[in-house]
Amino acid sequence: MTHGTHTETHSPRLGGDRDWRDTAARYALVPLRIFLGVTFVYAGLDKLTDSAFMKNSGAGSIGDMMRGVRDSSAVPALVDMALEGPVAFGYVIAFGELAVGIGALLGLLTRLAALGGALISLSLWLTVSWAADPYYYGNDLPYLMAWTPLVLAGAPLLSVDAALRARRRQRTGEDR
Questions:
Q1: Which of 10, 92, 121, 148 is the most exposed place for a label (fewest CB within 10 A)?
Q2: Of 104, 131, 129, which is closest to residue 44 (Cα–Cα)?
Q3: Residue 26 contacts by C-beta under 8 Å, 6 or more apart in sequence?
Q4: Do the beta carbons of residue 166 and residue 44 sit within 8 Å?
């Protein structure tokens, strides 16, 4: 038994008319930007406001967490580096998450923010969630993959980047 496959691709109609599929494709990254932005802002604020987290030792502390994952991480040297100053490392991660989240939400320096988010996710995957078995139980790898489209495409719509780009075009008299 064979099944038919729909292979037709959709392109904008002649004359510039767009239908709902074109609009959906143009706005496809906006929900991803909002999700990642809110999640990273929340993660950063959660770390900064958790009195137990920003400590060298004790239940729920960054120090104990890093010591707990050191031997199971893919790159123990990264954990060792963090353990030289766990509280300072905690602040770096928390403020990094805030910056990345705000950049994604506003669409400000979006590619750079997304690269920062991808690097944070990569470092957490290689250290904290590396031992998750099976691998898809760890959440840092999907976050790393989710940042990738924003690294590649930026924020072409509903963003500070897009507004600045439009303003630049207007000043120089460019069409596109």
A1: 10
A2: 104
A3: 156, 157
A4: no
